[in-house]
Amino acid sequence: MKVIVVGAGIVGVSCAIWLQRAGHSVTLLDRAGPASGTSHGNAGVLAAGAVVPVTTPGLLKKVPAMLWDKDAPLFLRWRYLPHLIPFLRRYLSYANDAQVDHYGQAMGTLLHDSVQQHQALAQGTPAAKFITTEDYCFGYATRAEFEADSYAWDKRKAAGVALDIVSGESYSAYDPLVGPAFEVVVRCKNHGRISDPGEYVQALADHFQTLGGCVEIAEVHDISLDQGAVETLHTTKGDKSADHIVFAVGPWSKAIAHKLGVNVPFESERGYHVEFLNPSAMPKAPIMVASGKFVLTPMQGRLRAAGVIEFGGLDAKASRAPIDMLKRQVARLLPDLTYDDTVDWMGHRPAPADSLPLIGANDLGNRSFSAFGHQHVGLTGGAKTGRIIADLISGTPPNIDVSPFDPRKYTTR
Fold first, then answer.
1. Which domains, ranges and CATH numbers included, belong to the chain?
2. pLDDT tens string 95-110
3. 382 and which of 10, 102, 125, 262 could share a cystine (Cβ 3.0–4.6 Å)?
4. Edge-first strand listing for the sheet containing 238-240
């Protein structure tokens, strides 16, 4: 069949490769090219244990203090607040124990084998060299700070996430770089890392083209429908149609989804990173610094500090406060670090109110499919999401329950 995949981040490129391997003729459309957005700027962690959402019980009580604390990882562009309120109402309604368990069960099936899924995706391609397997660590400055996170760790253990809780002294013996910064470190097992996310996705896209796939730089500015299903894509390179169309455009998916009748409550979470070029030292494994909820990840020739949540929409320019916060946090953690220069970046994470990605058909005729909304785990879940979409289009039942991700759950609201 002829398939168009809109969006060339990790999710879209994975969809394209698995569809190509299933024998379909695939065109990959993107307005700027492969890995030009969040798939370039993420923390690079294959976080197989990411089974706890941001929306946990008690979140609402914490938000005001976080917004006024310049070293907290939550930021808001206040002019955007009136637009944001309806979404926040829905978003915060999911901060309950039942929803956390529902999320954990669903995401556990999607993410638990993320390293193996990426290895399968990249097998036989130049992209394979970017995948490594190592612990994903969480560092806590004090035991009290660690115990304040006990709810999340209990949920992860209940979901089967393998982890070791070690003293900061023990961890610093393994990685002297962090010195006495942490009193407690949690080492999550069976995780992985992509040493250069942008180059990784680009290498996958290049492999897709080498095997006959088409990558076209074009922006979809509208769609035409026939009985609720996509008939035509109207793009900057003309009108296009196919047997099936996959929408994997991350935070830019909302307008198309709503036009298709998939009325998902949805926002962009703006994320930031700071890269320290040619640093004097590197951590041995990616580590989440709990005090700032950012990840410090060794990458090729640079050290990346990535994280932060800012609500401010798709159009506003990057803010200085999140970048300054990341730089302050890294300076406290690694006071002796030297480097040649820094590079700042801001990107957008697609955030449905219930934190669950949309993976599946948008219409009863299976003409178009959604593959977006992964929030903080787009890289982690991208490889498997592409495989699921390829299975659905090819008529092969996926080997997991995909009903929690069904876009059509929003069509009756």
1. 2-410 (3.50.50.60)
2. 999 999 999 999 999 9
3. 10
4. 220-226, 229-235, 238-240
